[in-house]
Write a structure and sequence with these properties.
6 strands; four-stranded antiparallel beta sheet; about 55% helix; alpha+beta; WH-like_DNA-bd_sf; Arc Repressor Mutant, subunit A; globular; DNA-binding; two-stranded antiparallel sheet; 16 helices; Alpha-Beta Plaits
């Protein structure tokens, strides 16, 4: 059964190649095969994903380990980058990262508990019939701990308890540097609740943060396939790179064309898709993968 979105593999490959790690080091059975990246499948098996994580951990060990890998990948997650500049609370950002992870791995059980204004406990657990992956848990913990750095704050402190098929993390988040943080703990908690209800923040990534089992996912996928079929081959390439959070300049370098050409393609894609912004386009793309 295919369980993990292929876009997660592509993001890991992209940042690894940018740091000088050959993709051949990470691909090939029992890991993900090259042909799967361009084929019709949008998800890969959990076992292949586990092997990919093991290879990532080994390949990145001379470069700072999973900490550096997780930070590099965080900077490429489009739905986080689309709203990170607007998120005022480190706790809110961490919850956003957890929500995205729940969407990407819907069969992983996620439990969270607020221990205080800046403390959060998170538990991730796998089904008994799933292969255990300590590398996955270590990479996940590093990714979550580094998420505050996306908004200019220090890394969160984290304690991790790792047992077969389960990890428990206890995060101590850095203090917020916003005006809200100058109030009492009660005011800070009220601010968190208010942020969770601000609809315009969630609108840009609503497709991503909804459960993939929601009733609207089929309709969203149908609409996506309809306008995606109207794209040219080159526009489809541009769309897939945009969905990985890659900048126009890097897209131009990868496709060997002018940056202005990429801008024209994106404008045409927005018109054909009916989306108003790059973030909405990313949300439509990732939402259809569910």
């Amino acid at each position: 059964m295919n369980n993990v979105p292929i876009s997660i593999i592509k993001a890991g490959l992209y940042v690894s190649e940018r740091h000088g790690i050959p993709r051949a080091t990470l691909l090939g059975r029992p890991s993900v095969e090259e042909r799967e990246l361009t084929g019709p499948l949008r998800r890969v098996s959990w076992d292949s994903f586990c092997e990919f994580n093991d290879r990532i951990e080994h390949a990145w060990s001379p470069l700072g380990g999973v900490e550096q890998f997780a930070l590099a990948v965080n900077e490429q997650i489009p739905e986080i980058l689309a709203v990170a500049r607007r998120v005022l609370s480190p706790l809110q950002l961490l919850r956003l990262v957890i929500s995205v992870g729940s969407w990407a791995h819907p069969r992983i059980t996620v439990r969270s508990k607020l221990l205080g204004p800046e403390r959060l406990q998170l538990e991730l657990s796998l089904s008994d019939d799933w292969r255990d992956s300590p590398a996955f848990f270590r990479i996940s913990g590093a990714s979550l701990a580094n998420s505050p750095r996306l908004i200019g704050l220090p890394r969160a402190q984290v304690e991790m308890e790792l047992v077969p098929r389960r990890a428990v993390y206890r995060f101590l988040l850095p203090p917020s540097r916003t005006a809200f943080a100058l109030g009492s703990e009660m005011a800070s908690h009220a601010h968190l609740l208010m942020l969770e209800r601000i609809s315009h923040l969630q609108a840009e990534v609503s497709v991503l943060l909804r459960s993939p089992r929601g009733g609207s996912s089929t309709g969203a996928r149908r609409r996506f396939l309809a306008w995606r079929g109207a794209l040219t081959a080159r526009q489809t390439e541009v769309l897939e790179l945009v969905a990985q959070g890659i900048s126009n300049r890097d897209i131009a370098n990868r496709l060997r064309c002018a940056e202005r050409t990429v801008e024209v393609h994106i404008t045409d894609i927005l018109k054909k898709s009916g989306n108003q912004s790059r973030a909405q386009l990313i949300a439509a793309f990732w939402g259809a993968l569910g």
